[in-house]
Amino acid sequence: MSKRKHLGGIKEAEKMKRRMERVKVEMKEISKEQESIRKGQGEVKEKFKVIELECEQLRRQTDIMIRQSLNTQLRLCLIFQILKAREMSHFTKAASLTRILREVIAKQGKEK
User: Which of 1, 53, 102, 106 is the residue whose CA sits 20 to 30 A from 34?
Assistant: First the structure.
């Protein structure tokens, strides 16, 4: 083997070695980036779970508020009908509506 070919082979080997070192460094950087991405994904997943729990809690609170509003509307409607019946001197109807109102109030009290 001539000296020239031998030196050329050594230079190629050195180039290859430098390339391999660069590849190793790049692989370490990529590995760090991937770990950072995994960590970020975990954090996002946790935050998403917290948000889901908060949404569920808000849904339950909204349902409670809707039920309370409907119960209030029912009571007001009965009270208005009782007043109207008394105004029209329909005391039997007023007594019946008053009994229904008491039952509604008692039922709602048990639900709480």
Answer: 53
